From TrEMBL:
<keyword id="KW-0560">Oxidoreductase</keyword>
<protein>
    <recommendedName>
        <fullName>Peptide methionine sulfoxide reductase MsrB</fullName>
        <ecNumber>1.8.4.12</ecNumber>
    </recommendedName>
</protein>
<dbReference type="InterPro" id="IPR028427">
    <property type="entry name" value="Met_Sox_Rdtase_MsrB"/>
</dbReference>
<dbReference type="GO" id="GO:0005737">
    <property type="term" value="C:cytoplasm"/>
</dbReference>
<feature type="active site" description="Nucleophile">
    <location>
        <position position="114"/>
    </location>
</feature>
<feature type="domain" description="MsrB">
    <location>
        <begin position="3"/>
        <end position="125"/>
    </location>
</feature>
<dbReference type="InterPro" id="IPR002579">
    <property type="entry name" value="Met_Sox_Rdtase_MsrB_dom"/>
</dbReference>
<dbReference type="InterPro" id="IPR011057">
    <property type="entry name" value="Mss4-like_sf"/>
</dbReference>
<comment type="similarity">
    <text>Belongs to the MsrB Met sulfoxide reductase family.</text>
</comment>
<dbReference type="GO" id="GO:0033743">
    <property type="term" value="F:peptide-methionine (R)-S-oxide reductase activity"/>
</dbReference>
<dbReference type="GO" id="GO:0030091">
    <property type="term" value="P:protein repair"/>
</dbReference>
<dbReference type="GO" id="GO:0006979">
    <property type="term" value="P:response to oxidative stress"/>
</dbReference>
<dbReference type="Pfam" id="PF01641">
    <property type="entry name" value="SelR"/>
</dbReference>
Length: 142
């Protein structure tokens, strides 16, 4: 999708976050304290990224996940902005800026994918089939 089309489709905050590597305010976003069962997809491309099973409360003010559904759905790159060295996380298909990954998460992998709500669309488990994500229902079986 072209940048001009995205400007029409997305809110100004969603565009700033996904296309201009922005960050939404902590504790003032849709999913930081949201724990319903379901799938989180890239707002731009619809690519499945995370499930609620990997989501945890990191007290950082943004949604945090221990791992993506598939490593191939995420691209990582070095981010040296804001006088820091961090690892940026982008979606593979949509190339949307999602957030950053840090090495201060829970076991077993110790990772915390700190993701902007403005880059995500949440699909409740009971709507996966209706929304075309029925192949991911098995991720919610015990």
């Amino acid at each position: 999708m072209k940048k001009n089309d995205l400007k029409d489709k997305l809110t100004p905050l969603q565009y700033k976050v996904t296309q201009e590597n922005g960050t939404e305010p902590p504790f003032e976003n849709s999913y930081w304290n949201f724990f319903e069962e379901g799938l989180y997809v890239d707002l731009v491309s619809g690519e499945p990224l995370f499930t609620s099973k990997e989501k945890f409360d990191s007290n950082c003010g943004w949604p945090s996940f221990t791992k993506p559904i598939d490593e191939a759905s995420i691209k990582e790159k070095t981010d040296t902005s804001h006088q820091m060295i961090r690892t940026e996380v982008r979606s593979s298909q949509g190339d949307s800026h999602l957030g950053h990954v840090f090495n201060d998460g829970p076991k077993p992998n110790g990772l915390r994918y700190c993701i902007n709500s403005a880059a995500l669309k949440f699909i409740p488990k009971e709507k996966l089939k209706e929304e075309g994500y029925e192949d991911y229902l098995n991720l919610f079986e015990n």
